[in-house]
Amino acid sequence: MPLAAHWLARCGAALLLAAGVAGCAGTANRMVSAITPYKVEVVQGNFISSEQVAALKPGMGRQQVREILGTPLMTSVFHSDRWEYVFTLKRPGVEVQSRRLTVFFKDNVLERTEGDEMPSEAEFVASLSSKVANPKVPQLEATEAQLDRIPARPAPAAPLDAQPPAQPPAMHYPPLEAPRR
């Protein structure tokens, strides 16, 4: 086959392949849009409950505040008397939850707090429930008709413990360490 004919045959095959792919583009787009990637839940920061905020009292030291709220997410070199507690929860198909609490200190004791209204622990846990209202629960019990379709089991073999135990092979292993003198 001459070189020009060989080249034309390859170009023609490439054009036919491209036309076939272009005709399938609508189907391919539908298939790609039907497949959705897995999206992870992103939790960032410290969850602070209303119970924790209620436990804070003016005059507490920094260590006492840290024991109640945990380590702050942000501390500023320029604002050493202020701690920022930020919490963000991103879940697919659910509105982003974001809350902020700022703790102010004066002379290393708690002066005041400012921030969002914090939910109680019970309210927060309830907000984490699945977005599926009535999930389909599989049937866990077989009906008589379903059991009749299962073939009968063969008779069980004799249990292994009914056979006389085999004698272990007589083996002698050398010591792991050489005796010390």
UniProtKB/TrEMBL annotation:
GO biological process: Gram-negative-bacterium-type cell outer membrane assembly; protein insertion into membrane
Gene Ontology MF annotations: protein-macromolecule adaptor activity
Subcellular location per the Swiss-Prot or TrEMBL entry: Cell outer membrane
GO cellular component annotations of the record: Bam protein complex
Keywords: Cell outer membrane, Membrane, Signal
Cleavable signal peptide: 1-24
Pfam families: BamE
Keyword check for Glycosyltransferase: no
Subunit comment: Part of the Bam complex.
Name recorded for this polypeptide: Outer membrane protein assembly factor BamE
Source organism (scientific name): Melaminivora suipulveris
